[in-house]
Amino acid sequence: MTSNLVAAPRRRAFTTTPPRSATAITNPRKGEDGIEWIINITPRASHRLKAISERDQNPDLALRVSVESGGCHGFQYLMSLTSASEADASEDTIFRDEGVEGFKPTVVMDEPSLELLKGSSIDYTMELIGSQFKVTGIPGAKSSCGCGTSFDIAA
């Protein structure tokens, strides 16, 4: 007896390109240990910022990330689009990634927000309920809510 079974096509595992460390170009901050605070920007976030910049014809586009008290776990992060030239040179740290296709994505954070989010990644996610920029991998977070915008810091 012969079998007419055809091998099913191999499925590829979902993989992502690892985030790259962005360079602080304005107001680099360091912790008490002397280590510079960094953030990472994923390629997905870089590509999305590039697309928005092109759509809006704004080469100075930046993503502002800030943290405030609130949310269901103590802190929540907020994001908005701004121009890098509107950042406060004395208060904000401006991060720039090496870029994609000639575009260098820029993220702006104030010092208190950076202190809570240092070492994390800025990503862009596409889900059934919508797409959004998101902060992932917050090193000091001990818990977060289901929507992913609220987190609690280990004491």
TrEMBL record:
Top-level taxon in the UniProt lineage: Eukaryota
GO annotation, biological process: iron-sulfur cluster assembly
One Pfam family per UniProt: Fe-S_biosyn
SUPFAM superfamilies given in the database record: HesB-like domain
Positions with biased composition (Low complexity): 14-24
InterPro entries per UniProt: ATAP, ATAP_core_dom, HesB-like_dom_sf
Domain Core residue range list: 39-148
GO cellular component: mitochondrion
Any one GO molecular-function label of the UniProt entry: 4 iron, 4 sulfur cluster binding
Region (Disordered): 1-29
Recorded family membership: Belongs to the HesB/IscA family.
Protein name: Core domain-containing protein
Organism: Cryoendolithus antarcticus
